[in-house]
Amino acid sequence: MRPLIVAALLLSLGACGPAVSSACPREVEYSRQQQEAAAMELEAMTPGLIRDTFMPDYGRLSGRKLDEQQAGARVAVEAHKKNPGDFVLWKLSSAEEPGWPSPWGRGRPGWHIECSVMSEAHLGKVFDIHGGGLDLIFPHHEMSASQVKPLTGKTFARAYVHAALIGLDGEKMSKSRGNLVFVSKLIKSGVNPMAIRWALLKRPYCQEYMWLRNETEIAQREIDALIEKLKQSDVPPTNTLIDSIYDFLADDLKSADAIAAINSWVTEEGSGGDAKLLR
After folding, report:
1. How far is CA 19 from the centre of its chain?
2. pLDDT(63) > 70
3. Is the dihedral of CA 145, 147, 150, 152 positive or negative?
4. pTM of the model
5. Nearest to 257 by CA among 184, 186, 202
6. Angle of helix 142-152 versus helix 20-37 axis, rounded to 10
7. CA-CA distances (angstroms) from residue 261 to 69, 151, 217?
8. How crowded is the C-beta side of 56, counted as CA atoms within 13 Å?
9. What angle do CA 200, 123, 166 make, to 5 degrees?
10. Count of alpha carbons within 13 Å of 181, Cβ hemisphere only?
11. Do 132 and 104 form a contact (C-beta atoms < 8 A)?
C-alpha cells in the first residue's frame, strides 16, 4: 500500500483530457434522466433548469444550507428561477453560440453537468479522489456531486482534495492583476522543475499562502543538501525517516511535514542508515 501512495504523488500528467464537445450526446441523455428523476420539475420556459431542493445531498460537501444562502451575492438572480439556488442543466444557444440538438432545443450543457458526465465516462459512477481548488467546492463540486446521487444512488467521489489558492506580494494571483507566476516561465528562466515541486510541497495543500520570490532558491538549497547527504557512505538511520514520510503522506497528504522531516534528517549526525532507500 505504501508504494502506491508515493506512486500517486509522482503522477504529473493525466491519462486523458476529455473535451466537453465529445461528451454532449451523453450530457443530453443525462439531463433527460435528471428531468425524469425530478418528477418533471422543469418548465418549458426554462429548458434544463432543475430545482436544487430536489437533491437530498445538496450541501453535504460544502456544509451549506439552502435557507442560509444569500441570493444574488455573486450574480443577479434570474427572474424565471423558482429557487435562487437553481442551476442549469441545459442552456439554449443562440445562432452565434455553440450548440447541439436536444429535446429542449438546440443548446449546450451547463457547467456542472459537464463534469459529472465526463467523470463518469472516464472514472466510473464512483471514483476515489476528486480534486480541484478551494474555490470549486461551492457551487461547482457541490452541484456536480449532488445531481449524480438521485440517478445512480451512489456517492460521486469517496474523497475530495481541494488545494488552496496561492497569492503574490499580498494579493491573490489573477489574470486581471497580471501577477500570475507560470511554471513554464520559471523553468524557462532556469529554475529546476524539482525545486518548484519541492517549494509547493513545503506548504499544506489546503492552506492559502503568499508565494515568495525566493521560494525556489530555498528549495534548491535544500535539494542540494539532500543530494550531498545521500552521496555519503554512512548516513544516520533511515528506517524511522522513511516510516515518517509514509505516515505523513497517508495522513491527508502532509507533504510539508514530510519535507521538514527530510530536512531535519539531512542535518543529523550518525550512522547505520541506508542511503539507497532514499534515492
Report:
1. 18
2. yes
3. negative
4. 0.72
5. 202
6. 60
7. 43, 46, 19
8. 7
9. 20
10. 21
11. no
* Residue written as grid cell 489558492: 165
The pLDDT value given to residue 3: 43
DSSP string of the chain?
-HHHHHHHHH--S-S----HHHHHHHHHHHHHHHHHHTTS---TTSTTEE-GGG-TTTTTTT---GGG--TTSSSPPPTT-SSTT-EESEEE--TTS--B--TT-SEEE-HHHHHHHHHHHHH-SSEEEEEEEGGGIIIIIHHHHHHHHHHHSS-SEEEEEEEPPEEETTEE--TTTT----HHHHHHTT--HHHHHHHHHTS-TTS-EEEPTTHHHHHHHHHHHHHHHHTSSS-S--HHHHHHHHHHHHTT--HHHHHHHHHHHHT-------GGGG-
Among 263, 275, 243, CA closest to 201: 263
Yes or no: say if 68 and 138 are a contact pair by the CB < 8 Å rule: no
Give the type of residue at 261: A
Give the phi and the psi of residue 268 in degrees, each rounded to 5.
Answer: -75, 155
Query: Do residues 171 and 177 touch, judged by C-beta distance below 8 A?
Result: yes
> Would you state the cell numbers that stand for residue 59, as one nine-digit string?
450541501
Query: How do residues 194-246 score in pLDDT, each as one tens digit?
Result: 999 999 999 999 999 999 989 999 999 999 999 999 999 899 999 999 999 99
Q: Which three cell numbers stand for residue 158?
A: 469517496
Kindly state the percentage of the chain with pLDDT values over 70.
75
Report the alpha-carbon distance of residue 247 to residue 2 in Å, rounded: 9
